[in-house]
Amino acid sequence: MDVLVAAPLYGTFTYAWPFSDDPIVGQRVIVPWGRQKRVGLIHGLRAVVDGDTGSDYDLKAVERILDEGRLLSAQWRQLIEFAARYYHHPLGTVALESLPKALRVLNAKSEEPVMVEKARAHADRLAEHVHSEHDSPPMNEAPALNPAQSAAVAALVDARGFDPYLLYGVTGSGKTEVYLHAIAQRLRRGEQVLVLLPEINLTPPAMALYQKRLTGHRVVVMHSNLPELARTKAWFEVASGKADVLIGTRLGVLTPMPRLGFVVVDEEHDPSYKQQDGMRYQARDLALMLAKQRNCPVVLGSATPSLESWLKSEQSAYKRLDLTQRAVPGASLPTVELVNTANFPPKEGLSEPVIQALRENLDAGRQAIVFLNRRGYAPQLVCNACGWVANCEHCSAHMVWHKRDMSLRCHHCGAGQRVPQACVCCGNQDLSGFGRGTQRVEEVLEGLFPSARVLRLDADSTRNKGQMEDLLEKAHAGEVDILVGTQMISKGHDFANIGLVVALNVDASLYSHAYRAPERLFAQLMQVAGRAGRRAGSARMLVQTRYPQHPLFSALMAHDYVRFADSEMQGRREARMPPFSYQATLRADHRHLGNCIEFLRNAKAFGEAICAAEGTVFLCDPVPLSVVRVGGIERAQMLVESESRPSLHAFLNEWMNWLTAQKGAVKWFLEVDPVEL
Ligand SMILES: Nc1ncnc2c1ncn2[C@@H]1O[C@H](COP(=O)(O)OP(=O)(O)OP(=O)(O)O)[C@@H](O)[C@H]1O
Ligand SMILES: [Zn+2]
């Protein structure tokens, strides 16, 4: 019998079956694995004929059966198989790592953790799902839809079979309301619904809203920060078909949903849908594949769609649903103003017009957002005498100064240390921070507006359990006057009283060499602008920049996504960049960069031999990553491109055969559709 095991090896492993009950594909078992035991998943059955091969006698036997019946359906395996194939990742790893930990990791005594039985029993106890066309769930407190929303809902309710939609709705246009109405109707047909959100911090408000509206239905949430038991319970509820709606971050897409009938991907443009380690999948893309396999409609929603999705809608592969107005009567998009820092040099990061606007906004009793995408106090700690800069010992990066806990921290490898009393080079005690992060801006704001309640929301202030919910609740309850934060506060949240948004530090991304940087910056600025003016009353956004003439800003000031997308698309088309070409990168990691480069050169030479005849796939030269060393390991990569997706994958298949055969100390991995280059 063929068993999948989580191991960085391609293929299945064959074991003997010593039990009288028949094995079932999709059942979990315990198998011996070297000197250990591991959870395996039965993937295929094959009859071993007596004396068939000489190796039969050393075929190890399955030790225990973990599930009474089939745990994982053929439908689920179909998606997992697609993902493994498409991302060229070992199937066993993909399959097992998509499960909650309790279902794939044995306890210290090599037994299944008790948690699994608890979670399973919990789901068993839940009432069997019943539905009827007549028991319309009461949509409590739902506002009456406007005509554009109604049209969108009608399309999504009527959709049958695989049918992708792009819900292009400006910020605050009531996309959530469209999802809710469509979902309520689809639930009446007994369908299960998957709702993907890009970030954990968006799940608590979504959960509260969905539960309130969809009374009588079971709504569960799944993300990587859930306690293990809660996640395992949620998994069984969804996989048994007892839960009706799954609200999840990207890992939600890999959860089995037997009654799946509708898929929603909110904020589809968001880079967080891309997994950045292990199998580097794009959850939005997998959600589309899922909908295709399950033959059901899927809606991608955004005010700033990814160029990939926008192109599909232009080619009519996705049907577009437009919401062009804000939903709340009297609400309007903020006016966007640029503050030229050449004319208004910032003091401590804030220019005079910004300070003035903050003051007026406070006086008007409204909340403000100050957005900058850099956490910590200062990105560098410098000696004012000799110019020494605190660098990470393990990475080619500066240490970030975190003033609250007097530490220096590396944002690449996580290394931390106390701030030195004096320069380690010359002994001078005059050290200062260069540049500013959210903590420093928070401090500056507290100094400027002593009576204002300033609150910081970033990865550091929300590290402890429940902290993020508490802070967001405060912001929603109006117990905060100025919110300082990273992209965490910039998207999705429906704040009621934001009268002003200030964007700082945007210039670096304006002229970044990364080809997706403008797309990302534009989306970020549109999204954070979108937090303002969501109820009646006017609102402003101020962007501090040295380059006010940049074309990105004129589109931003006009809230004109389409103009921006058109011009960006034009550039990509001319340069044959995605979405007009398909890419993969091969990364190599080793203590010495030279070894990485040599490995990649060999891979390139072999790759060129494969594709020489065809000429449809192009291999670029290996290059070191911009942050070359992280945690003592040096990294390099090479890009592979093709204008044809099938050609690229045909090439990658062959290339993988060579790569997997390589022995040596260089660690490598392949990334398909990379976002960071
Ligand atoms: N038809 C309606 N009438 C009145 N208010 C509405 C209506 N539809 C939605 N709203 C309200 O409009 C606000 C914004 O809606 P929602 O959060 O769904 O916007 P969104 O399109 O998801 O925006 P974003 O892209 O910025 O996240 C919410 O407070 C919502 O309750
Ligand atoms: Zn480091």
From TrEMBL:
InterPro entries: DEAD/DEAH_box_helicase_dom, Helicase_ATP-bd, Helicase_C-like, P-loop_NTPase, PriA, PriA_3primeBD, PriA_3primeBD_sf, PriA_C
EC number: 5.6.2.4
Amino acids binding Zn(2+) 2: 392, 395, 410, 413
Domain Helicase ATP-binding span(s) in chain numbering: 156-323
Binding site residues for Zn(2+) 1: 383, 386, 423, 426
Keyword Transferase: no
Family: Belongs to the helicase family. PriA subfamily.
The protein's name in its UniProt record: Replication restart protein PriA
Naturally occurring in which organism (per UniProt): Limnobacter litoralis
